[in-house]
Amino acid sequence: MTEEFLSRSPEETREYARRFAATLQSGDRVCLKGQLGAGKTEFMKGIAECFNCSGEISSPTFSLFNIYHGSRRGEPVELHHFDLYRIERVGELDAIGFEEYLFGPHIAVVEWGDRFAEYRSSYTVTVFLDHAGDTARRIVITR
To answer: pLDDT by residue (tens digit) across 63-97?
Structure first.
């Protein structure tokens, strides 16, 4: 199943991400893909807002991953947020225990998750973000 949305602003991107996140369940693994500046981190911020995660949501480009704690309808939710932009070889993912953090009773969101063919089939949903103007973004979700 594929759905498409045109966002005209970062606020609309976050709002769409909040609605999308409401459909996620524990164990889901989301691949965020798109060019630099396409809105992957903005989309992640909307996901985190849906789960009432506290603190600054930022792309873990240098730390590689962040873990956020939140809740939905009174139930605790754990989000694992990865950014694989700086990773060059799959062996680097093995070294940080990527697989252990990707799979489990939490929701995992992976920016640049499409970079490694070895993991492409691991994602339960893929979100593609593309520039559609100065502030507009085309968002395509494939489940």
So the answer is: 788 999 999 989 999 999 999 999 999 999 999 89
How far is Cα 14 from Cα 135, in angstroms, rounded to an integer? 13
pLDDT (average), residues 1-26: 96
Dig out the tokens for 26 from the structure.
């524990």
Give 61's pLDDT tier (boundaries 50, 70, 90).
Answer: low
Domains and CATH numbers, the chain: 2-142 (3.40.50.300)
Question: Any idea which residue has 């995992």 for tokens?
Answer: 108
Which string of DSSP letters, residue by residue, matches 43-55? HHHHHHHHTT--S
Please report, for residues 23, 46, 70, the alpha-carbon distance to residue 12 in angstroms, rounded to integers and kept in the order given: 18, 9, 22
Helix (H, G, I), strand (E, B) or coil at 15: helix
pTM of the model: 0.92
d(Cα 116, Cα 56) in Å, to the nearest integer? 27
Amino acid 90 reads V
